[in-house]
């Protein structure tokens, strides 16, 4: 049974994960850091778009090659496939993450959504409590909280509902632990692409230099 007794005090602002979130969202630098992260999201979207253009095969018979990793090949070929193949499979998820990240960084994104959905720009005030009528069955704490959340969400304008989905989509929390686990794997793979991409660039640069070296004819 619930007694209402205070069991302890938790300060979210002093927790480790809150600090990590502040680094991720704005580098702990206020509006300037938030702007930097927003610009990074735009750059990331551009890189993803150009990556898909570069991935797109010139001939139809090359599609299968771009969708499969050739296990047992040389390390250079595996590095190429990890970047090309895994990059394609994760590109849509990374694009959504970058897009929602941009939406959380720039206020104009939410304002644009509100304008397109004819929603008010200002947030609605939270509902106030009211005394229960005589003879009404009392709610338990869990039931009351669930009802309040449902009512508060249902009363929000369409634009604010869409804006409220940005964070759960961005973090993968929208469908619980399964989508969180998927987001975790996608982010881990995404962290490898700058490494595999740099190795690809170095290999191609060295190959181009070798081709450009003059050949010495022996008598």
Short description:
By secondary structure, the chain is mostly helical.
Write a structural description:
The structure is a single chain. The chain has helices at 16-26, 30-55, 63-67, 75-105, 107-116, 141-154, 158-164, 166-171, 177-212. It has 219 residues and is mainly α. It has one domain (12-125, 139-208). The radius of gyration is 25 Å and the shape is elongated.
Report the biggest beta sheet as strand number plus sense, adding barrel if it closes.
none
Rg value: 25 Å
Alpha-carbon distance between the two ends: 98 Å
How many domains comprise the coordinates?
1
Specify the overall morphology: elongated
Overall average residue pLDDT: 86
Helix/strand order: HHHHHHHHH
Strand content bin: under 5%
Regions with little confidence, pLDDT below 50 for 5+ residues: none
Strand elements, count: 0
Structural class: mainly alpha
Helical region count? 9
Question: What fraction, in percent, of the residue positions are helical?
Answer: 55-70%
